[in-house]
Amino acid sequence: MIVLKSSAELEKMRAAGRIVAETLTLLESLIVPGITTAELNSVAEKECQRQGAKPAFKGYGGFPYTICSSPNDQVVHGFANRTPLREGDILSIDFGVLYKGFYGDSAITVAVGELDEETQRLVTATRESLERAIEKVVPDGRLSDVSHAVQSWVEPKGFSVVREFVGHGIGGSLHEAPQIPNYGQPGQGPRLKTGMTLAIEPMINAGVPGVKILEDGWTAVTQDGKRSAHFEHTVAITDNGPEILTQV
Ligand code: MG
Ligand code: MG
């Protein structure tokens, strides 16, 4: 069942989303060659404390960090560590909080210094695919229109859609119905309604779509070692169209 949120609940989700957005903006501003994901994780943790928010991922199924930090060929769910990021790397950061009973969830992929042209293309296409998907989040739209918007944007550019992980409904729980794949034919699935809140999150690979999980049981990496990018927003469907809750 897809839970519809009242305007009072939506107001709380705006507050959670704002904390997520502000924290990601802060983390992005700190990313330069030499910084470590452990440092970024501790900044995010302090920011949660300061704002009175609970990190959504730490402890979730045993995940040990406040942020998921996934450089280069890591797709999602990477562990923070003390390896300095290098010029030309990309880093995907996925971050969520629980605040006053509601969740916000968002992800960005950030350039460390200057990127090579192919990597820049991947990051840009992934961000654009999320923008295209969000345009489909309108009352009376169909869920798979959102999925199709991602796939049809990135595949003609030579990139591939990760199948193993999907977007999701979000609200009083981090993961609610429906699941939102980043691929599929348009015009299918549930009809979208005002009051739905969705976390849309394309994960796009430069090479093959397949992923494998490292021995830590969490970190997903591309099967071919090529790079992967990830962007996510929590979006509410309103009578006036999509409202991005995780944007400053
Ligand atoms: Mg996320
Ligand atoms: Mg998510």
Q: How do you describe this structure in short?
A:
The chain is an alpha+beta fold.
Task: Briefly note the CATH topology name.
Answer: Creatine Amidinohydrolase
Main sheet: strands, sense, barrel: 5 strands, antiparallel
Derived structural class: alpha+beta
Number of strands: 15
Bound molecule kinds, no repeats: magnesium ion
Separation, N- and C-terminal Cα atoms: 30 Å
Specify the overall morphology: globular
**CATH architecture term:** Alpha-Beta Complex
Helix content: 25-40%
Runs in which pLDDT lies below 50 for 5 or more consecutive residues are none
Spatial order of the strands in the main sheet? 8-7-9-14-15
Gyration radius from CA atoms, angstroms: 17 Å
The helix-strand sequence is: HHEEEEEHHEEEEEEEEEE
Q: Count of helical segments?
A: 4
Overview of this protein structure:
By secondary structure, this protein is α+β, with helices and mostly antiparallel strands. The protein has a 5-stranded antiparallel sheet with strand order 8-7-9-14-15. 49% of the residues are buried. The protein has 4 helices and 15 strands. The two termini are 30 Å apart. The chain has helices at 7-30, 37-51, 117-135, 143-154; strands at 54-55, 68-71, 74-76, 90-99, 102-111, 160-161, 167-169, 176-180, 197-200, 203-205, 211-213, 220-222, 228-230, 233-238, 241-244. The chain has one domain: Creatinase/methionine aminopeptidase superfamily (Creatine Amidinohydrolase, Alpha-Beta Complex), CATH 3.90.230. A hairpin with a 6-residue loop joins strand 7 and strand 8 (176-180). Bound molecules: magnesium ion (2 copies).
